[in-house]
Each structure stands twice: as structure tokens, then as C-alpha cells.
Amino acid sequence: MTGLFAGKVAIVTGAASGIGRASAQALARGGARVIGGDRATGTANEWRADLGGEGLLRPLDVTDNAAWLDAVAEARVRFGGLHILVHCAGAVRLAKHPQEPDVVSETVWRHMHAVNLDSLMLGVRAVIPAMREAGRGSIIAVSSLAGLRGRASSSAYASAKAAILQYVKTVAKQTGEQGWPIRCNAVVPGPINTPMMGSPGLAGGPHDPWVGEVPLGRYGAPEEVAAAIAFLASDEASYITGAGLPVDGGVSAAVAT
Ligand SMILES: NC(=O)c1ccc[n+]([C@@H]2O[C@H](COP(=O)([O-])OP(=O)(O)OC[C@H]3O[C@@H](n4cnc5c(N)ncnc54)[C@H](O)[C@@H]3O)[C@@H](O)[C@H]2O)c1
Prior knowledge:
The protein is of the alpha/beta class. The protein has 6 helices and 7 strands, in the order βαβαβαβαβαβαβ. It has a single domain, classed as NAD(P)-binding Rossmann-like Domain (Rossmann fold). A 7-stranded parallel beta sheet has the order 3-2-1-4-5-6-7, sandwiched between helices.
């Protein structure tokens, strides 16, 4: 990836942890200057030391429109523009709130859609003007296998993640048809070994029911999703827009889409 992102500026959300953190590192190591945004920024110094390139971790609550505008303004002022948005911030559950359709509360339903889906709309709306100005843009959203198939225990999450796949097609269509130099895609991860899937070491172990569903027989690493994100962010993917790229060890090979 060395030099692939030279001269590029990226915003990565959910950057403090998991897939977001690995994506920030992949882009920075390829030469991008990276603004990492997250609700949790307690590890900002360590984050910066591990980045492997130029960048910073700053507060960004992705449900807050003003915070998005602020982050885009920082990209312009500090680094001179914006070319890449990787939107990884997301949440799979709200503690103690069930999501089964017969009991799901409006609170958890709205929260799941606000964090996972509405945030993408806010982000896309905020970055399009800056990317048009920069003359090149790539937006990558993070959907989920949960968005391709039914799972009662994550109905609200699944709904939001399914809508992401539809939304990126719409963005791709508008930007393409308008002649704006912006591509928009999603990755669709399967089970990935991050804090979201439980304590490292337990998730993906021999008693984890997920593992038996994965043709490759294991959880993915955040770096494996980051590699797909970096590809979509790069000019190597210049003819790909509106796509949802599975990064799931083959699980979706058995899912009707
Ligand atoms: N881990 C998996 O198996 C898996 C599978 C499919 C999809 N995903 C998706 O991948 C993305 C990244 O998840 P991860 O596995 O790296 O989890 P993670 O828990 O390691 O990271 C998620 C990050 O998002 C941040 N975040 C949460 N709400 C936020 C908000 N309102 N504003 C800003 N930041 C916020 C958290 O602080 C955290 O740093 C999520 O969208 C998730 O739904 C993960």
C-alpha cells in the first residue's frame, strides 16, 4: 500500500477500535493523512503512535450533524481538503435492550438506526461538497452480514445494515450521473475479531457457534476488512461504485441476495 494514498486526506469514523482503527492504519501507511473520529478518544496518544503515518484521533459523535461539519472543516483547514471517508462507527446492541421483533422498543430501534444508518446520511451529506472541491472522492460504508439475512436477536441492527447497502447504491447513482468524481461503496463483514464480537480470545473459539458457519473456518481479523476498505478507497477501484463487497470468509456464499 506504500504511496497509494500519497496526497490524500481521509476521515475514518469508529477509528478508536477494531475495523476503524485498522483502516486508519492502512490508509496512513499508504501515505494518507488521517483524521480519526470516535466517541471514545481516551487512547488518542497511543493511537497516534501506532498509526504508522500522519494523523490524529479526535472526538466525533457520528449521530451529531455539527460534529460531522466540524470534522470536515478540520480536514480542510489542517490538511487542505478531503478525499476519503471510511464510516466504521457502529453499534450492534444497546445494553439490556432486546431486539426480537415482538419486544423491541422504539428506543433501541431508533438508536440502532441513528448510529448505524442516519449517521451515514449525515456523513455523506457533509463530505460531498469537500470531495467535489478536491476533485476526487471515495466513500466506504460498513454494512454487515446481518443486513443480508434475518436474525431475530438483532432486528434493529440488521434493518439499519441492510439499508446501508441500498443507500450506497443511491449515492453512487447520484454522484455518477451528476459527473461528480466520487465513488461510494460498502464492505459487508462477516464475524471479525473485534471488541464488538466479545472479549478477544473467547470470540472465534471452538465453542463459538459463528465459526461453524464460516467456510474458511475462522473469524476474520480487522486488518482483513481494512485491506478491502483500502482497496475501495484507492484508485485501483476506480471503476467500482455502488457495490457491497463481502469480507466474510465465504458465509454469504450460502445466502440468497
Ligand atoms: N466485528 C464484526 O464482526 C462486525 C461484523 C459486521 C459488521 N461490523 C461493523 O463494523 C463496524 C466496526 O465495528 P468493530 O467490529 O470494529 O467494532 P468496535 O466496537 O471495535 O468499534 C466500533 C467503534 O465505533 C465507535 N462508536 C460507536 N458509536 C459511535 C458514535 N455514535 N460516534 C462515533 N463513534 C462511535 C466505538 O467507540 C468504537 O470505537 C461497525 O459498523 C460494525 O457494525 C462488525
